[in-house]
Design goal:
This protein is mainly alpha-helical and 88 residues long. The chain has two domains: 8-50, no CATH class; 56-86, no CATH class. Helix content is 61%, strand content 0%. The protein has six helices and no strands. It has helices spanning 8-17, 29-37, 39-50, 56-68, 73-78, 83-86. The protein is elongated, with a radius of gyration of 19 Å.
Length: 88
């Protein structure tokens, strides 16, 4: 069993989106981190990550509420508050 074992779809997504690198084993981590920290590579990763519209942090509470059989009102309590409303 490999230390960094993950479903193949995850690895393909990371490569396809250019948001990271995929390593074959844990022994490659040091070299992988060095590659990722090269200025041009790091800038590309940051740009590609920023381009992702990852809403999972807002979807997870709703999913958990459904699994727990709670009413959908949890989404209203966990929805982000607009900046304008925070200052009132």
């Amino acid at each position: 069993m490999q230390c960094l074992d993950a479903p193949a779809g995850n690895a393909e997504w990371v490569k396809e989106k250019g948001v990271g690198i995929v390593l074959k084993n844990f022994g490659d981590v040091v070299d992988g981190v060095k590659r990722m920290l090269e200025p041009a590579a790091l800038a590309a990763f940051r740009k590609n990550v920023a381009a992702q519209n990852n809403r999972a942090v807002f979807e997870i509470p709703e999913i958990l509420a459904k699994l727990l059989g709670e009413p959908n009102s949890i989404t209203a309590r966990t929805a982000p508050v607009p900046v304008e409303a925070e200052t009132r």
